[in-house]
Amino acid sequence: EGSYQGATGASECTDADPGHFATTGATQQTPCAKGSYAATPGLSKCERCEPGTTSGVGSSACSECAAGTYAANPGQGQCVPCPYPLSSERGAVICSFCQKDFYLLQSADPIEIFSSPTDYCKPCPPNAECSDDTTLATLGVPAGYWRASPSSAVLTECGDFGGDGEAGKQRCAGSEAEASGRRRMEEASSSDEYCASGFTGPECQLCAAENHYLVDGDECKECAPRGAAAAIIAGIVFALCAACGLVAWAYSKTEWRKKRYIGRLLRFADRTVYIYVAIGLTAKTKVLFGFYQISTVLSSTYSARLPDKYTGWTDKLANVVSIDWSGFFLPEQCLGYDLRLVVSALS
Q1: Which one of 128, 130, 141, 222 has the fewest beta carbons within 10 angstroms of its own beta carbon?
Q2: What is residue 221's three-state secondary structure?
């Protein structure tokens, strides 16, 4: 076995070459079929290639299947392309991950993924980067973009927040910051792995350091003392009270109505008050204010809404009234939560 008699009457038999075999009484060697091999001379049969490999006719060794193909069974004569949109590594026995421009939505048994590839492999989200074997957790996030967590497929473009066109990229480093971000998350859970060092929060718009706030979209500066903001608020309140007192005092001066300049203003004020009282504007103002209060809470309380032609002006007024005036005195990051509530209530 393993040799053959090359010519009639030959005194010696010849061993079969690698990649061939010879049975007892053979007069010539036979090449191994596809999917099998003979590694050494003088073999009487060829061995089947292992799963994940294949061979051509007359092979002395098996070669691994190329990336993107697989061989599930031993002795396969060729590797089979992966079903769309799956791919594989070299020497694969099954296709178990998504090809480029797709990502694996959730982990599962490779057999399940192979049997239902389109249920698990989804198109790469807008602005994301998906190479071979990308999962939802490993989506490539380019610089200038941010996502809420590794389980989110929504990428948000980072705003400039007062800076130039590159400010968003400076704060949001994307996947470049992922490795260092994971180290930071181990140290401080509030950090965001897609933010550059020193930034955190949605769109990386918050400064990681305490008592600092964002300036020019990509720089953190230390907050001014809160006492300064308190002094500004106290000064504004005092100025408003003083102004109201001065106006009331001037209005009470009957003799000033004959003066050239201020008299005109006082006489105009008299006419305004007269008209206000004559047409009963106090009652009308109360009715209008009551309507405003009802229309602004109707949708949140009763899940109902009046037609836009009635509520258009109330929505605009609500946007003005609901401004967080605390930001005019100190940046939001410089005010503690309790102090912001107090300032917002006073404003």
Answers
A1: 222
A2: strand
CB atoms within 10 A of CB 299: 12
Q: Does the N-terminal peptide bond of residue 85 adopt cis geometry, omega within 30 degrees of 0?
A: yes
- CA end-to-end span of the chain: 101
Contact 257, 267 (CB under 8 A): yes
Q: Are 226 and 335 in contact (CB under 8 A)?
A: yes
Q: pLDDT value at position 129?
A: 94
- DSSP single-letter state for residue 172: B
Query: Does residue 31 sit in helix, strand or coil?
Result: strand
Separation of alpha carbons 146 and 127, rounded Å: 10
Nearest Cα to Cα of residue 92 among 121, 131, 53 = 53
CB under 8 Å to 190, separation ≥6 — which residues?
200, 208
DSSP structure class, residue 6: -
Integer Cα distance of 181 and 174 in angstroms: 10
CA gap 313, 270 in Å, rounded: 29
What confidence tens digit (pLDDT) does each residue in 163-180 have? Answer: 888 899 999 998 875 545
Query: At CB < 8 A and 24+ separation, what contacts does 307-310 make?
Result: none
- This prediction's pTM: 0.65
Give the three-state DSSP class for 265: helix
Model confidence band, residue 183 (pLDDT cutoffs 50, 70, 90): very low
Task: Quote the CA–CA distance of 289 and 294 in Å, as a whole number.
Answer: 9
How many CA atoms does the CB half-sphere of 56 hold within 13 Å?
Answer: 0
Tell me how far apart the alpha carbons of residues 337 and 334 are, in angstroms, rounded to a whole number: 10
Phi, psi for 48 (deg, rounded to 5)? -75, 145
Average pLDDT, the chain: 85
Least confident of 53-67, 202-216, 323-337: 323-337
* Stretch (H or E) spanning 64: strand 63-64
CA dihedral 114, 119, 121, 122 (to 10 degrees): 170
Cis peptide bond prior to 83, omega within 30° of 0: no
